[in-house]
Design a protein that fits this description.
Blueprint: E1 5-6, E2 9-10, E3 18-22, H1 26-31, H2 34-37, E4 44-49, E5 56-59, E6 66-67, E7 78-79, E8 82-85, E9 90-93, E10 98-101, E11 105-109, E12 116-120, E13 175-182, E14 187-194, E15 210-213, E16 224-227, E17 251-256, E18 261-273, H3 277-284, E19 291-299, E20 305-315
Parallel strand pairs: 4-7, 14-15, 16-19
Antiparallel strand pairs: 1-2, 3-8, 4-5, 5-6, 9-10, 11-12, 13-14, 13-17, 15-16, 17-18, 18-20, 19-20
């Protein structure tokens, strides 16, 4: 992989997720769009033999034509290898034909506990190190969503007006005197607590606030899970409306009433099925101090949402 680049970036950094590397044949080259055939800006080889001995089919970089003659093995041309990716190790976006690496994880057990966590690896070779924050004992609140519950329903319809029922008298969202901010998507919300009641987290009446799920830790004290609406009604966006646009490396800030600022850096942004509890738990377990944000996505014509958007971050 040394010396090879893709879109100007060295491929050595993603070698761990490449399962095979080969040259494409002429038939596959012809199926590529013209833009892709001329993208190399120079002639490039396929692996298909030409019409004559010592000739090999190549693609003309200026016109995109796939030529079967006039080129011998002695000619200097570019090589455009096709990569086969290990799809279990990447997130693939079919709409843009791009991919990003999943965080490598490895199980660790706290020295003073039987609790096992998964710590993110810092390199593409999968060489994991116990996060510095876990050394000398846990000291953190670990959290998992129960498999039998429903993920919070955090989306009102963006197209059909709907009334809001009266909030139950015994349901209270306690203010936690903290504010969440995501500058990259211009999002901000006050943080309140959301109790676990009758087998679910009732978030219907959160409004523009972000709700910390009962049982999860205060941000920075362990694994925290916050949920927020994507839409409040047909004209107002919720605090997590643009959560899908948050990118790995973006910062999330938590500010308390005393002015203390906590900074988290995003390590994953994933869409999961509406009741994929295990998928959400895997993201929560990515760091013993993870901050996980959840909202709804993919509104159904008949009502409700088919997916959940989940963003996970860790302290800087």
């Amino acid at each position: 992989m040394d010396g090879l680049t893709g879109a100007g970036q060295p491929l050595a950094g993603i070698s761990s997720v490449i399962s095979d590397l080969t040259l494409i044949d002429a038939s596959t080259a012809r199926k590529l769009s013209l833009t892709k055939r001329i993208g190399a800006r120079s002639d490039w080889w396929t692996r298909t033999p030409g019409h004559y001995k010592y000739n090999v089919v190549f693609v003309a970089g200026d016109s995109g034509s796939v030529l079967t003659v006039l080129s011998s093995l002695s000619d200097r041309k570019a090589v455009r290898p096709a990569l086969k990716l290990d799809l279990s190790s990447v997130f693939f976006d079919s709409s843009s034909n791009t991919f990003s690496l999943k965080s490598h994880t490895q199980d660790f057990t706290y020295p003073d506990s039987d609790e096992t966590i998964m710590a993110e690896c810092s390199d593409t070779d999968g060489n994991c190190m116990l996060p510095p924050s876990t050394e000398g004992g846990s000291g953190f609140t670990l959290f998992r969503l129960d498999e039998g519950i429903a993920l919070p329903r955090t989306g009102f319809s963006a197209v059909s007006p709907m009334g809001l029922s009266e909030k139950p008298m015994d349901l209270n969202y306690k203010p936690l005197r903290r504010t969440l901010e995501i500058p990259s998507v211009s999002a901000a919300a006050e943080i309140v607590s959301v109790p676990f009641t009758d087998g679910e987290y009732p978030v219907t009446w959160l409004g523009a606030d972000a709700g910390l799920l009962e049982g999860s830790a205060m941000p920075g004290k362990g694994q925290s899970v916050l949920t927020g609406h994507n839409h409040l009604n047909t004209t107002e966006a919720g605090p997590f409306a643009n959560l899908n646009a948050v990118a790995a490396g973006d910062h999330i800030f938590i500010l308390d009433e005393r002015g203390n600022l906590q900074t988290f850096i995003v390590y994953a942004n994933v869409k999961v099925a509406e009741n994929d509890i295990s998928g959400v738990n895997r993201l929560i377990e990515g760091d013993p101090q993870s901050l996980t944000l959840i909202t709804c996505e993919d509104e159904r014509p008949e009502g409700g949402y088919a997916s959940r958007r989940v963003v996970a971050a860790r302290p800087m």
